[in-house]
Specification:
The protein is mostly helical. It contains 22 helices and no strands. The protein is flat and about 70 Å long.
Length: about 475
């Protein structure tokens, strides 16, 4: 872990989903769902349906792959020290980072609790998931738990390892020494808490870190341990997570302030390497700077600052001469989907048209083209046509739950309730581990209620599947399945 400062960030840096996640790696993967309160809101379909139903999804996320440009630690870790920040007038901080766990016990398993309440102990015995005791007590164990989707168990393991570092329960406010390994453990823990929607605990445990500008998160603070080494001990992904954190707490204006500062420093570092004619390092920091801009656009979308989005997209992201045609195409496609989110169909069609022209000549429409076209059809309330388009897209990426979910939405609004239910049920039966995601579960539970007043039996069958195939959900089972919690 210490040899790879990015480490486990590939699993979490894109939470919550961004319109730009797919730019890091063109290979599609399953979209990560997040609590509905954090989704950019859309008025689409609101006039025809008032239930708790997820509208068509716009975002296809992708693995946040290892950074494609390889650089040495000096380039990767470069960040202005507290003393340098003081020279620029921002004020050199004098405090130290003294974190600690805010819970004494492990996070519970809410799915297991719900199964025990609604289905009983016999069904709970069918729940076979990895626990902390089932893996090695190190970062390899954390990776194993994360790969298995056991995020709460991974949080619990980070707690054990941080306790070994003297940063366990009750240690907040007490002096601590930091290393790349300990700070990566904290980054992993906080990113997992964000993913799981544990925002109260996230806020409490992240508070001591501030924006990672304290003296003791730089190598210079430990000359006896890191002789001559300079730069940030904390990873850039950790800084980005802390800057984005107010988004999870419903405070995008604070996140926008944090991210703007992060972007300024990232751009200054990029310019530093441009002046020294280090093109590889300059490109590395250019990409980091652009990743911050992606997050800024997500904040602007939540705050309805649409002119800011246009300024960044057209004036900053798309002006770089070194962009490949595929990178340009991805950006125009993302821009078009943003226009759809704000209800500007004509503007979206214009951006999608540019994206199509950037595709290789004489090639058939690919997944991006089809999803863009399908979303336009949905926006025009042509649900039968949208369904056919998404169906073609599904042939290119079978099992893509974003596409399946949108197909179900189209069937519902085309008046084919039973067909929508059958589609979701077939998807779950064919691949329960992938298809039992939050958006699809919310939608299917809503369809069950529309179909019959006696929907509880079917919802409990879904709970049985969740019990057997899902280690964790990002929102509570009761919300997902619209079940009444029992006392």
């Amino acid at each position: 872990m210490t040899n790879n400062p990015k480490g486990l960030s590939e699993y979490f840096a894109n939470d919550p989903p961004s319109f730009f996640d797919e730019l890091t790696n063109p290979k599609p993967r399953e979209p990560q769902s997040e609590p509905e309160v954090n989704k950019p809101k859309t008025n689409m379909l609101a006039s025809t349906f008032t239930g708790r139903y997820q509208p068509p999804e716009y975002v296809e996320t992708a693995d946040d792959a290892e950074e494609p440009i390889k650089v040495n630690d000096e380039v990767r870790n470069l960040w202005p020290s507290p003393a340098e920040q003081g020279k620029t007038g921002t004020g050199a901080p004098t405090h130290l980072v003294m974190p600690g766990l805010h819970i004494a016990n492990d996070l519970p398993d809410p799915i297991g609790v719900a199964v025990n309440q609604h289905l009983g102990e016999a069904e709970l015995l069918q729940r076979k998931i990895l626990g902390v005791e089932d893996v090695t007590q190190d970062e390899r164990g954390i990776r194993q738990l994360i790969n298995a989707g056991c995020f709460r168990a991974a949080v619990n393991l980070t707690g054990r390892l941080l306790t070994i570092y003297g940063q366990g329960y009750g240690r907040s406010g007490q002096p601590a020494k930091h290393s790349p390994h300990s700070l990566q453990l904290w980054f992993t823990r906080l990113a997992l808490l964000a993913k799981l929607g544990e925002y109260e605990l996230l806020q409490a445990e992240a508070e001591p870190f501030g924006q990672l500008n304290a003296l003791d998160v730089f190598y210079e603070f430990y000359p006896e341990m890191y002789s001559g080494k300079q730069g940030s001990i904390a990873s850039f992904s950790f800084r980005l997570l802390l800057s984005e954190m107010p988004i999870y707490l419903g405070k995008p204006h604070l996140a926008l302030d944090n991210l703007s500062k992060l972007h300024v420093i990232s751009s200054e570092i990029k310019q530093h390497y441009e002046k020294s004619r280090n093109g590889n390092a300059s490109e590395f920091w250019q990409r980091r700077s652009e990743r911050v801009l992606h997050s800024i656009i997500n904040c602007a979308l939540m705050m309805k600052k649409y002119s800011m989005i246009d300024d960044i997209m057209g004036g900053m992201l798309l002006t770089r001469s070194s962009l490949t045609k595929e990178e340009q195409r991805s950006l125009y496609s993302a821009w078009g989907r943003i226009y759809l989110q704000i209800g500007d169909i004509f503007g979206a069609e214009q951006k999608f048209a540019v994206a199509r022209r950037l595709r290789e000549i004489n090639t058939a429409p690919d997944l991006r083209d089809l999803v863009d076209k399908g979303l336009i059809a949905v926006a025009k309330n042509d649900f039968p046509e949208a369904y056919l388009i998404f169906q073609k897209a599904l042939h290119l990426d079978s099992g893509n739950t974003m596409i399946l979910n949108n197909m179900g939405v189209c069937l519902l609004y085309a008046g084919k309730l039973k067909d929508a239910i059958n589609l979701y049920e077939r998807a779950i039966n064919l691949n329960p581990q992938k298809s039992l995601n939050e958006s699809l579960l919310v939608n299917l539970s809503t369809l069950y209620e529309l179909e019959s007043n006696n929907s509880k039996v079917k919802k409990l069958n879904l709970l049985r599947l969740i019990n057997r195939f899902k280690p964790d959900l990002n929102i509570s089972v009761e919300i997902c399945l619209k079940l009444q919690a029992t006392n």
